[in-house]
Design goal:
118 residues, three-stranded antiparallel β-sheet, mainly beta, 5 strands
Length: 118
Amino acid sequence: MSDEAGISYSATTDYHWTMRAFELLTSANLTVERHEAGGAPYFVVTGPCPRCGHHFADRQVTVALTGLSGPSRGESSDAADVVFLDLTCSCGTAHQDAPRGATGCGVSFRIGIEKAAG
């Protein structure tokens, strides 16, 4: 392991890391860019990992399936104003104690962004 790997690998979803990601978003250190390809939106999230601090870039494709529920399944057919993205550290660093072939520190977290973001 190189010195830059810093902290050991830990597969964690502790809410603390979602809160830390929110802090990084509000300070503009973690950024989200909205793109579209063939009418399907996707988001590119870049910045420091909220746990290890190493830079990562993650492409999140959002897919919506329509026509799967009847009229009694929900009060409105309007799409949500917020998109939630589930991310896992993909910093590319081989952290100590990581499973063979894994890169990143193992943290998973969620961010919520307005659909118009980007």
